Amino acid sequence: MTPALIAEHPDWLALHKPAGVSMHSEDGAGLVVQYQHWHGAPLWPVHRLDRDTSGVLLMARSAAAAATFGQLFQQRRVEKFYLGLSAQRPHRKMGVVAGDMTSGRNGNQRLLHTLERPAVTSFLSAAGGRGGRLLLMRPWTGRTHQLRVAMKAEGAPLRGDRRYGGAAAEHLCLHAWGVRFAWQGQWHQLQAPLPASPWYDDVVVQQQCRQWWPPFALTMPRPADTLLRRIGSQ
Q1: What does each C-alpha distance from 134 to 3, 108, 192, 210 come to in angstroms?
Q2: Quick one: how far is CA 89 from the chain centroid?
Q3: Is the pLDDT assigned to residue 29 strictly greater than 60?
Q4: CB atoms within 10 A of CB 84
Q5: 3-class SS at 49?
Q6: Residue 90 contacts by C-beta under 8 Å, 6 or more apart in sequence?
Q7: What distance, in Å, lies between the first and last C-alpha atoms of the chain?
Q8: Signal peptide position in this chain (predicted)?
Q9: What is the DSSP letter of 92?
Q10: Which is nearest to 151 in space by CA: 112, 118, 175, 121?
Q11: Active-site residue identified among 11, 27, 50, 161
Q12: Full-prediction pTM beyond 0.90?
């Protein structure tokens, strides 16, 4: 696999991870090992994307840069936006999904009504072609399967998400579309191209994505200040 480079900086790389590829694997075929082989030097992944999720992946080029990214993520100073596609219309056109998450059967996660250590996601929805919906999601926290569970709770599980009841697709329709952060006083706004897929190639989806970019400039539903203070203390 040839690495797809989105952006390069002396301290980090931004790569385009394809769907269906694991970040790590015991046989040395994981994404991190492959990119390190291509780069010819050690790389430190500073966040993760699930095997079936595509999009922007940041990797530090030194331990010091990785530590700085760790602080940025901990302080929630890295903004991430994801695209998803669903065959169902969510209960609301936009909103904030918040609740504690707990493990269920077979590795599934469940969203609870309590807010002790909540997962928090903002979202917008629009017509997505073929009678479906296009979803723009901003996670404020980073729980396992957070976005997939949030959309299931909204009645709009993602296409290709067999675990959470999504409609059939060749792969999970979840894409890490954009990332923004400040590095050494300079803002970086990164975009991963849409996956090569008939679902994303739809003219309605393409048009809506043009209207939504850059998502950092959109007015999305914002969690209540009390909720932001709660997750800020975690």
Answers
A1: 27, 24, 17, 12
A2: 20
A3: yes
A4: 29
A5: coil
A6: 123, 125, 133, 135, 151, 154, 155, 156
A7: 38
A8: none
A9: S
A10: 121
A11: 50
A12: yes
What's the rounded mean pLDDT across residues 158-179? 96
Residues in the chain: 234
Q: What is the distance of C-alpha 16 from the center of its chain?
A: 12
Question: In the structure, what pLDDT confidence band is assigned to residue 191 with cuts at 50, 70 and 90?
Answer: very high
Q: Clarify whether 201 is annotated catalytic.
A: no
Residue with tokens 């994307």: 49
d(CA 149, CA 187) in angstroms, rounded, equals 31
pLDDT for res 2:
54
For residues 134 and 126, the answer to whether their CB atoms sit within 8 Å is yes
pLDDT of residue 233: 61
Backbone region of residue 22 per phi and psi (left: phi > 0; alpha: psi in -120 to 50; beta: other values): beta
Give the helix/strand (H/E) hosting 188: strand 186-191
Q: Can you tell me the distance from the alpha carbon of 181 to that of 189, in angstroms, rounded to the nearest whole number?
A: 7
| CA-based nearest residue to 148, from 229, 73, 67, 84 | 84
Domain spanning 5-232, CATH architecture? 2-Layer Sandwich (3.30)
Residue found under tokens 């200040």: 225
Contacts 24+ apart (CB under 8 A), 72-77: 72/181, 73/46, 73/47, 73/142, 76/140, 76/231, 76/232, 77/181, 77/182
Residue type, 32: V
Chain mean position to CA 37: 25
pLDDT average, residue stretch 125-135: 93
Q: Could you tell me how far CA 201 lies from the centroid of its own chain?
A: 19
**The one-letter amino acid at 62:** S
Tokens for 82?
């994801």
